[in-house]
Amino acid sequence: VANAGASMLLAAVLLSIIGRQRYIGIAVVVGISISSYVYLKKVEAISLYSSGRGYIADGDFDRGAQQLRRAIEQSPDVLPLAETYSRYIQAVALTASVRDLQAILEKARAQHPEIHRFELYQLTLQSISPNPMLRKQAIIQLGEKAKMHPIASDLSANFLKNMCLSLLQLGDIQQAIFACENALVIQPERMGILRVLGDAHVRYSEALALTERLKDAQESLLGATEAYQKSLDDTLDAQVLFSLGHVYTQRGLLDSALSTYQTGLHHYSGSAQHHRAEIHFKIGNLYMRLGDVENALGAYEASYQIQPNSMELLANMGSALRQLGRLEEAHTTYMRAADLAPNNPHLLYAIGDLLYARGNVEAATETIALAFAKGLENKTAYDSFLALLRAQGRDREADAWEKKRPSVQ
């Protein structure tokens, strides 16, 4: 910028000196001005390149990609072009513009055929094509390129991982799975991708279940199980452990889920108390599903010793105490939970139901009514509430609540 200012000052001086040679003077000034403008554009391109890298390092991939694109358009001749394009394309793969990558690559390859990485990225895109033949051909070619150029496997595997994350966020779950699986084919040692692959399989299973493709949904859960297990074999990560336990539970393999969580308790024996609290809580939930209420309560109490201010934990503890017939303790525990979440409709209903069991019908009715007023939607509970009102001779109130039935599922 200093050079540009000096050039403009020099132009003004020359113009005043030249005087009568007006046209020559103007030509000199124009030449200097153009030179200054070009110089400024080059400086701006370098600035855009630097800021783009900075945004990407900070996790702002949208803005980082925009800055790098502008730098390329501004003055490609002053940039390390192949490296700049790589950063730009990898950043785009982490944004909602991931679907535009094919068009971006075609344009870039046409403008800069000398950059061989574009072919690599296009092959990588082809590896997640809906066409299985194209996918297979692309994977074979990527494997061959990786043997000749080790950096090719790094670039393509990272590109696929980035696309997997973006496609998963955009809801293109099947393509996200292709991307993760292909990244692992290219670089099997990339264990960090396994967790993302497991998450993608879980999402895909949920989508399949909604369309009643239950067999396919179970197969996808099996894929999630395998991905999470391989990930845990490499590193025992708490979130992966929780995810694996959840998948086992969804598959009805409660003993396997219990074993997974107990492995976590052993691993986090002396540290990471928040993980231990969460594991105890999940073990308690599993024991409740297995009908072992005593052990469930023991697990909940262990979690409570570490993390006493959890509404969900206190609500589940209250439910276990009630099932064991310890009604007064259940009520006390429910009320602690209500202190943390006074407007939770499910908790309010549980309190009202317990009050009814203890013979306090009037308080039970008012509390259950409050639960529905706060948004509880449960048809069976609603029918029981209406019956409770009529049993007390409160038919007009029951009729008024009856009119609200269409909003209750």
- Taking pLDDT < 50 over at least 5 consecutive residues as the criterion, the unreliable ranges are 8-15, 25-33
Strand content: under 5%
Mean pLDDT: 85
From the helix content, strand content and strand pairing, which structural class follows? Answer: mainly alpha
Tell me the radius of gyration: 32 Å
Run of helices and strands: HHHHHHHHHHHHHHHHHHHHH
Number of helices: 21
Can you summarize the main beta sheet?
Answer: none
Q: Rough shape?
A: elongated
Query: What is the distance, rounded to the nearest whole angstrom, between the alpha carbons of the first and last residues?
Result: 68 Å
Percent range for helical residues? Answer: over 70%
Secondary structure tally: strands: 0
Describe the fold and architecture.
The chain contains 21 helices and no strands. By secondary structure, the protein is mainly α. The protein is elongated and about 85 Å long. The termini are far apart.
Give the key terms:
21 helices, 409 residues, mainly alpha, elongated, 0% strand, 79% helix
Secondary-structure blueprint:
Elements: H1 2-18, H2 22-57, H3 61-74, H4 81-92, H5 101-111, H6 117-126, H7 132-148, H8 150-170, H9 173-186, H10 192-210, H11 214-234, H12 238-250, H13 254-267, H14 273-290, H15 293-306, H16 311-323, H17 327-340, H18 345-357, H19 361-373, H20 379-391, H21 395-402
